[in-house]
Amino acid sequence: MNDTPILHVDNLVTAFDTEQGLIRAVDGVSFDVRAGRTLGIVGESGCGKSVTALSIMRLLPKPHGHIEHGRIMFHDQDIATLPADRMHAIRGYGIAMIFQEPMTALNPVHKIDRQLGEVFELHFPEMDNARIREKSVALLKEVGISEARERMNAYPHQLSGGMRQRVMIAMALAGEPEILIADEPTTALDVTIQAQILDLMVKLQQKTGMAIIFITHALGVIAELCDDVLVMYAGTVAERAPVKTLFQHPRHPYTLGLLSAIPRLDNTPKTRLNTIRGMVPSLYELPDGCRFQNRCPYAMAGCSIAPPPLRQIDDNHWVSCYLYR
Amino acid sequence: MNKKSPSEPLLSVEHLKMHFPVLGGIFRHQVGKVYAVDDVSLTISRGETVGLVGESGCGKTTVGRSILQLYQPTAGRVTFEGKDLTRLSRKEMRDLRRDMQMIFQDPFESLNSRHTIGNIVEEPFVIHGIGTADERQQKVKELLRRVGLSARARTRFPHEFSGGQRQRVGIARALALNPKLIICDEPVSALDVSIQSQILNLLLDLQQEMGLAYLFIAHDLAVVKHISDRIAVMYLGKIMEYADADTLYAHPAHPYTSALISAIPVPDPTCRRKAEILSGDVPSPIHPPSGCVFHTRCPYAVDQCKETIPELAAVAGGAGDNHQVACIRTGELRL
Ligand SMILES: Nc1ncnc2c1ncn2[C@@H]1O[C@H](COP(=O)(O)OP(=O)(O)OP(=O)(O)O)[C@@H](O)[C@H]1O
Ligand SMILES: Nc1ncnc2c1ncn2[C@@H]1O[C@H](COP(=O)(O)OP(=O)(O)OP(=O)(O)O)[C@@H](O)[C@H]1O
Ligand SMILES: [Mg+2]
Ligand SMILES: [Mg+2]
Is residue A193 within 8 Å of residue A149, measured between CB atoms? Predict the structure, then answer.
């Protein structure tokens, strides 16, 4: 396996100009993505997972969202500063994304054949209609849609949630991307359908060797699917580690808290769960210093002075917490 | 009645059916039925939690709403403390609602956004004409404290609160009239894990202190198992299996339960097991499959399953009536 990262995100800061002021939804996030591997990004609602993904795709809502600082190196190009037309080429066969809400990404008034066809036209302008149709059907089969030829004539609302998600995956794969970003692709699905989709993604990755960035708030899915994990909290990286290290030797108090707060099937019923007290601070009223301090059982005087830097404490294991120095 | 519990149950649901009409054609006449709930029986004792779990659209919410008589059931009986709810007058039912409350998945939708938190929690007292204004304010403060909110919350509005806080408000309101049963419809599904565990603990504490019974509806089996004494697994309007929480997890007797358990991602990367992946989608409740409704996805289905509707019956060699399953192949299968 080639160990040089194909994507290297370095100290990314993404801001929004809002009526109530400027917020940094992503504030100093760094990570690497390697070919054939899956990076999981996990964290609670609003911690900046989708904004990180949209920054990489350069699809931030304009004009109020922008990359304020940092580099996003895709091979040797910096996506953060790339001209719009060059970015266009990267989207699709460089990096493709499956969005959090499948219904907003699929056009409700067009049939599947047209939507899939348009993606092929975009990436392969030289392809003729017959060939596009052939490729589309093959791709639908590949993502596990039975009766693919018939489904080409369906509208999105005629498909189940799981099938719509398969179509989304097909559209993202049409350009044979090097990196697939999947933003909560299974959150709206039932567990038995989620299991089908996760299985599909693993198989597609084995076949194509693409890298996957998998965004979720479910630690179970992370454990099942990912090689490396990035735990985000209020726009920052709390901890970054290979998946086994993260689950076996979690270091950041937030990661520890999360892992002990999930109900597990083998728990004794009706026992109290561990909790993380309090709530995530608002991006408009962030404390000085560590953003987790108000909820942290280990908070010390120094935590409210300056944000803890992300430090490497072991092989590939990074933590931003003053407990480790 | 085929289930016995040590004391008389607080609530018993017998052969409940709720079929909704499907309208079509230019005259909007009935062209079919949604078999949303199709023969569900269960009991809940005082202070007990019964979990109702199943995939989207299997009829969980409809069971909850039918129990509260928010729908007029197509068939079956709902008995609360010995009274048949399907035969009560409006007035009698309204009085009885004090004892049976409901909390919802999205507390935002269920809370009137133009009312203050104080008004929202006070409303049940006002509706039932309980106490003076001062007494009611006192009660509201107590309730807010009880669910972990400050008394200052009274003058604020729902949008100023986070999802977890709004869920606390919904719980405070449900508790106002000292109910005996709360139907919790996906109360933590929209919450982040750290907040979800706070709410689950709160529900457990309240149950201990007040002797509440819960019908706890959710699609997440790990959550349901954590809070429930007994669990009913639903699929396409029917109960597939009904057992003690531990038994259900350790000795599932229905292929669907077993698949559901195996599909849940385990938060431990060292035990990535091959999930037993069910193929296909849940069929439409407008045209449920013949025989066993699960046969189209069941890896163990035989021809007979397409014809025979399995009865929910005690598992042979199991825990008697405390472990029931609806599968004609129980006993033969090693799950
Ligand atoms: N267009 C926008 N304008 C202003 N603020 C925004 C915008 N989009 C996102 N934000 C803010 O940025 C923060 C991060 O949002 P983001 O969507 O990345 O969260 P997330 O981690 O994906 O959460 P979820 O799990 O709910 O999808 C949030 O506080 C959000 O309110
Ligand atoms: N008022 C109604 N009229 C017609 N059909 C309905 C009505 N309410 C529910 N249904 C249908 O009945 C079936 C069961 O719905 P229900 O809401 O009870 O499912 P559920 O198990 O609560 O699902 P979820 O997990 O998505 O909340 C679904 O097919 C639904 O579309
Ligand atoms: Mg998101
Ligand atoms: Mg429901």
Answer: no
